[in-house]
Give the backbone structure.
Amino acid sequence: MKVMILAAGLGKRMRPLTEHTPKPLLRAGGKALLEHHLLRLSAAVFREVVINVSHLAEQVEAFCGDGSAWGVAIQWSREERPLETAGGIQRALPLLGDAPFLVVNGDVWTDYPLARLRDRRRLAPGRAHLVLVDNPPQHPLGDFRLSPSGRVEARAGSQAGFTYAGLGVYTPAFFAGLAPGERPLRPLLDAAIAEGRLEGERYPGQWADIGTPERLAALDAALAGGDATRSFR
């Protein structure tokens, strides 16, 4: 199974840290955020990785090289300007092939056992499987509900659901017909929910959305202190 790491964003909420350093290369626990992903992917025996880049792309490419330092092979999907999540994936589809692929947001940290997602390599065309987590303080209502059968459903009103972890398996057909350009992912997820094509699971382990300098500092302190049980939400 191939993997796509989303790393093309501007990191606006992380400024001024991202004015001269791309967000994937910000450090926590002594390693770049992107390196945490590459290490975990390699340990889970994912070998083919596609990374999209835009903002300060040359720094990201220089840091990663061909991926051999982590035992992976990296291909680059270059964007003249950030194309958002769905737009970036659509641009990279020729590199991702015909089989289901794993997508990892570059600005999250998690101890999720990535090898488990290989079980989703037989997803039917047009479907996707999302990893959901309990809601962090900055997103108290979450994104979606999850049925007992594992079907992802729309969240209604003030009823709390779960938060998309930025980790999921998608089939190429999930993006069929999507025009090139800047495209967010959420409308595609909502359409898939309406058509019963979206499944998921709740992960109760460690996860952090590293969206602000404060949350980056909290993750850095926890990892540097070896506190693997701390909740970063």
Summary: The chain has one domain: 3-224. The chain is about 25% helix and 25% strand.
